[in-house]
Amino acid sequence: MKKSVLSGIRATGRLHLGNYLGAVKGMLELQNDPQYKTLYMVADAHTVTTPYHANELKVNRREVIIDYLAAGLDPEKSIIFQQAEVNEHFELAFYFSSVMSIARMQHLPTFKEKIKQHPQGSTMALLNYPILMAADILVYKAGLVPVGIDQEPHLEIAREIARKMNEQYGTDFPEPVRFATKGEYVPSLKGEGKMSKSVEGSYINLTDSHDEIRKKVRSIPTSSYVGMDSKELLKTLFSYANLFIPKYKKQYEEELAKGTLKYISIKDQITEAIYNELKPFQEKRIEIEKNKEYVDKVIQDGTQKAKEIARKTVDEVKEKMGLS
Ligand code: ADP
Ligand code: TRP
């Protein structure tokens, strides 16, 4: 039997380069490997775990599907759907919550960080975030999850839940592992932390124009200030060079050592490489956006296929837990 793969991205806005390199590229690679059965969703229900606007979510849960299709996710090869349409995820999450302690969930670094970002947002939904994510994965018995490195603590919870369920109830859940890509950690353009939607000025959107990309790449810090050594200062620029123009790495290191390195020329080469990577995506996106019926059909078919698999798992779990 084929090994299952599941991944998702929250519907908090349009995708950026970090999402693309850390998650979507891995999704594509596994989709195109016939060993795997791939399921990719928009984690729309996870969006309500932090403050949001319903009218924006309504739009974004569809926009992310369009981004997926434009990036090359293919409904002939992958099941593409919206999480909130498949009730079984929530049903399974509730059963999973019976094997996890409150203390374990409260101590998770991702929970603590989110509360720091949204001090008013310490909700049960946020505490349950990783349990729902475990259900997303395990309802399809997926063993491989293409996501960025920041998601590792959540996968640890999913493995813990799989182990506990198997021990206590004799289920046969796999312990899911992360599928890492070369771009598993794309740094912020500002030189500190990761590229993220929630930090203004840190990201490049997949739909940014050539001009916007150039402006943003040129903003990567390269002029030193007191107390910072040049290696630390250039860390961000060099990670972008490594991701987008790896074959020039040696040349730049030599130029840096000789003192002849021109930052602007590396930056403009990075811009070209990013733009060339994004151009086919942008062209395809315009086409897909126009085809409303096609997008509706992809979502409808994907939901139906996902539901069929998910229902079987939940029925199995109910039976093992004494609920049927
Ligand atoms: P954001 O931090 O911008 O809100 P999400 O948390 O929605 O991004 O992440 C969606 C997916 O993209 C996850 O798999 C995450 O690991 C990946 N991802 C997000 N930012 C980055 C990044 N800077 N580098 C690599 N992967 C990332
Ligand atoms: N937590 C993921 C993120 O922030 C989104 C997500 C929800 C997810 N459920 C998932 C990712 C299941 C992989 C598998 O991007």
Per-chain topology:
Layout: E1 3-10, H1 17-31, E2 36-43, H2 54-71, E3 78-82, H3 88-97, H4 102-106, H5 109-117, H6 124-138, E4 144-146, H7 152-169, E5 177-179, H8 210-218, H9 230-233, H10 235-244, H11 249-258, H12 263-290, H13 292-320
Parallel strand pairs: 1-2, 2-3, 4-5
Helix pairs in contact: 2-12, 3-6, 3-13, 6-7, 8-12, 10-12
The chain binds adenosine-5'-diphosphate (ADP) and tryptophan.
Q: What do we call the CATH homologous superfamily of the largest domain? A: HUPs
CATH class of the largest domain: Alpha Beta
For the terminal residues, how far apart are their CA atoms? 27 Å
The DSSP helix count reads 13
Describe this structure in a few short sentences.
The chain has 324 residues and is mainly alpha-helical. It has helices at residues 17-31, 54-71, 88-97, 102-106, 109-117, 124-138, 152-169, 210-218, 230-233, 235-244, 249-258, 263-290, 292-320, and strands at residues 3-10, 36-43, 78-82, 144-146, 177-179. The radius of gyration is 21 Å and the shape is globular.
Tell me what the structure shows.
- It is a single chain.
- The chain is mainly alpha-helical and 324 residues long.
- The protein has 2 domains: 3-184 and 292-320, Rossmann fold, CATH 3.40.50; 210-287, no CATH class.
- It is built from 13 helices and 5 strands.
- The chain has helices spanning 17-31, 54-71, 88-97, 102-106, 109-117, 124-138, 152-169, 210-218, 230-233, 235-244, 249-258, 263-290, 292-320; strands spanning 3-10, 36-43, 78-82, 144-146, 177-179.
- The longest helix has 29 residues, at 292-320.
- The chain is globular and about 75 Å long.
- It starts with a strand and ends with a helix.
- The structure holds adenosine-5'-diphosphate and tryptophan.
